[in-house]
């Protein structure tokens, strides 16, 4: 398994004593998470145009200089392989001996223990390092950041108990108030602020990075005394942060380590008990596991690596608790009729959706056409049963969604902003999964009408007349229909991203409804994939035309939207960063591919990829070392063209992706 970066990351999620009552609305002000009850109660309310207010260009930026970034920390975390071995050994020791005595359900594995009750003495040095940290957010901004996390991240991945988290926040009150909370909770709180701060224009990324680094120091310290499960929760939160800041490889390694740690801690074998507290602890473990599995599979799609966990359902899916209703989170009133949305429904829907990732990535490998092989021979020998099964299962998944998560127009959109966001996010993610399923046949659809050296005179295998012939195989028709649908899916995904993209939040009254789709760090990969599909669709021969689904005009408009959105993400923050660089590289590569395709009617866009990119793409997709050759080259006299650019990923474009 890949190793996490040297600055090893571990985070913790707080959960104080079980007697504390939920105080949900304390950290969900109306300006960020909900509207007034009168507005929420309005039936059949169409989505309002957000009450845009004039945004002052001179927005105050909260930042911290790098030379002040937590220099008082006294613990240096273990680095590299030593850190991994140390933590894995601790996990093994816990599983085989000490852990059984200390980490029973009765000990509240997921609870945040006050410093005086933590296992073992807490060093004064650690308290000092927290107290002197330069975290100087105004209290109102801090509350807004917590509310944003709860309304946009927690509801999609409920990895801790909401009531206990809020009670812990009440005890701390201020990030400097170390005496009121454990270092574990402070690490969690810093990660919550870091994650939600990425959505705000007023907060400098350097400041968020300093919080992230300090959380790493806290959770990797040798005298960690909180629950090992809290450490796993911290790993998950830090993996989310790395993903959101454009470091997918580091995030993938870290989330994979968190999953392995959960396996070593025995999550999949824990038996349920009769008490309510035992059930709550068990459900929290399942939520954490499946949230991590979902993130790991999203990252696997992004970097082109098969998922590490082959059978994620070895841990049962979580079940609903009475505190899981979304109106309990947002502070709203239950709807008078119909379904009552729950945060668990979204988690279950995503877990089932990303359960298809392993099969789809295997299908991509199986259906891939080598640049030196015949597409027709590949297609006629291809077993399409996995493709048809995956397509049928995705359709079954879609129709089985609860009504409030349906996006097909049959149901009235929810008037709760959280539910609306979940519906929009789920639709975008499902479209991307479908695009990845259909894309291999789109590549074949481009290769079949092209000249092929295995036929006399390089005659194509499929022309307009042959495609409609009674003698042609039915698989030709399947390729044609799938290629059209792949292009239609890409256009719908781009439209969904553009419709819901409103830029960064600024703390205004309209933030509740703004950016109601997938976050920008997801969208960069989606847009690049859609851009390559749109370019490929423009090359489809006339027999592939279906004016009802795709047309030259629609493809042209979609292409312009892709480039416009990538430019927006490139300039989203003045400080740039890995994500801005990824957006810029994606935009430049798509423009280069488009220029190369204009010069090659056959669809040969090899010139649109530089030598290093072609090498990385070939190595990833063909398992062939290509650096010494500079990428695929056709033999002399060959009529075949290289179409591997269609399935390229942003990770192929930049060798410095972390």
Automatic annotation (TrEMBL):
Q: Which stretches of sequence are listed as region Disordered?
A: 1-58, 113-134, 601-639
Keywords assigned by UniProt, alphabetized: DNA-binding, Nucleus, Transcription, Transcription regulation
Spans of biased composition, class Basic and acidic residues? 36-58, 611-622
Which parts of the sequence belong to the Xylanolytic transcriptional activator regulatory domain?
251-324
Q: Which GO terms describe its biological process?
A: DNA-templated transcription
Annotated Gene Ontology MF terms? DNA binding; zinc ion binding
What protein is this chain from? Xylanolytic transcriptional activator regulatory domain-containing protein
Q: Which CDD domains match?
A: fungal_TF_MHR
| SMART domains in alphabetical order | Fungal_trans
